């Protein structure tokens, strides 16, 4: 995108009502987000994402994007179950959730790209509480995720459902990265945000759970598989002790939350929290510390914690803020879930064949193959043998092979 196009798209971003999700205006909004998302990824790959960051801050669009995330999440939990119970909707009940998940994935991916910058975090203002809550809910999904058969091939009749589950998983991993970037800014976060992360949600203990169970890693048929760059890879024996980017995000978030003076003065190091944190000592091997040397400070801190009783946090009188966006949407739409679902069946998810073709053409323009290939972080590999591949399947256009 040229600067003028990027600015026009950023200015066009606006919040959506729950009843509008899936409608034509909402789909146009999704196209804007997706174009900005792809622009952000390509700009970041060349170190030129500063323009997009400045536009989002100047036009105060970070709270808008966070609001879209919360709207989508409430839609999934409140509206979609009602949609599935409507008799005239069941035959195509998986399509809307897939479209909505794609919108959610685009937004969280865009936020992951720009939240590296301090000014983006600051521009979120009070909506940072909603984003922290959102990330917390996604991390709970990760911690509860069963690692059994994560990498199994989808059964054909349930392929769309399997894709939706995989997208949920990837969205949760993006939320982990966003949360880590938020913890990088503990010095400039409002007091209520720190309190929410440390005491309301007890994020340090939740991150310990992720270190223990590592949902992006699993064993299948005696082989270790790890999830990186959107796919599951078999890890050769010599690389099994190598830290992945996701492992690094968890450890960096723990470093930020446990070692900064602001957090140490507010976190409750009671008996339970202390016992959970000390579990980390078993994972702090020399091999791990060699890959992330700052973990030496974590090792020292845990050794100190094991033999001392930290002072309890000060019981200052604090007026705690609540997540504004979540509460506003719930109050505005409470008791209207079924009415909204019926409206969407009629106006959003009952497209004619001509309307479907028009929407397909619009998406084809947004998701051009050349653009998608530019976004791929590594060269494609053969579906059969795993070596670098140059031939794409002419039928499905998804799989790659090294020979005919």
UniProtKB/TrEMBL annotation:
One of its GO terms (biological process) is outer dynein arm assembly. SUPFAM superfamilies: HIT/MYND zinc finger-like. It comes from the Eukaryota. GO terms for cellular component: centriolar satellite; cytoplasm. This is ZMY10 protein. It comes from Brachypodius melanocephalos (black-headed bulbul). The gene is Zmynd10.
């Amino acid at each position: 995108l040229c600067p003028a196009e990027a600015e026009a798209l950023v200015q066009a971003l606006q919040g959506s009502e729950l009843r509008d999700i899936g409608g034509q205006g909402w789909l146009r909004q999704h196209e804007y987000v997706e174009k900005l998302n792809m622009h952000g990824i390509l700009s970041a790959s060349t170190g030129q994402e500063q323009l997009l960051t400045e536009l989002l801050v100047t036009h105060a669009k970070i709270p808008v994007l966070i609001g879209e995330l919360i709207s989508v999440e409430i839609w999934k939990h409140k509206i979609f179950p009602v949609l599935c119970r409507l008799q005239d909707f069941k035959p195509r009940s998986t399509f809307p959730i897939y479209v909505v998940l794609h919108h959610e994935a685009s937004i969280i991916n865009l936020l992951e790209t720009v939240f590296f910058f301090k000014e983006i975090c600051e521009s979120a203002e009070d909506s940072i509480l909603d984003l922290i809550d959102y990330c917390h809910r996604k991390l709970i999904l990760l911690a509860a995720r069963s690692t059994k058969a994560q990498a199994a091939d989808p059964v054909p009749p349930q392929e769309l459902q399997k894709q939706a589950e995989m997208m949920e998983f990837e969205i949760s991993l993006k939320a982990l990265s966003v949360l880590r970037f938020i913890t990088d800014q503990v010095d400039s976060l409002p007091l209520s945000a720190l309190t929410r992360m440390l005491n309301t949600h007890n994020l340090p203990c939740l991150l310990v759970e992720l270190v223990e169970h590592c949902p992006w890693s699993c064993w299948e048929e005696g082989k270790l598989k790890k999830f990186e760059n959107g796919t599951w890879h078999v890890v050769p024996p010599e690389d099994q002790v190598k830290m992945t980017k996701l492992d690094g995000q968890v450890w960096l978030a723990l470093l930020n939350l446990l070692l900064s003076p602001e957090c140490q003065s507010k976190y409750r190091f009671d008996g339970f929290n202390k016992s959970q944190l000390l579990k980390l000592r078993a994972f702090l091997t020399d091999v791990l510390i060699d890959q992330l040397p700052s973990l030496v400070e974590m090792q020292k801190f845990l050794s100190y914690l094991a033999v001392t009783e930290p002072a309890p946090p000060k019981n200052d009188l604090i007026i705690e803020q609540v997540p504004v966006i979540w509460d506003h949407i719930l109050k505005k739409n409470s008791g209207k879930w079924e009415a909204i679902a019926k409206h969407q069946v009629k106006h959003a998810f009952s497209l004619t064949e001509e309307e479907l073709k028009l929407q397909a053409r619009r998406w084809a323009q947004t998701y051009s193959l050349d653009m998608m290939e530019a976004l791929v972080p590594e060269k494609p590999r053969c579906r059969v043998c795993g070596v670098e591949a140059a031939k794409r399947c002419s039928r499905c256009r998804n799989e790659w092979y090294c020979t005919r």
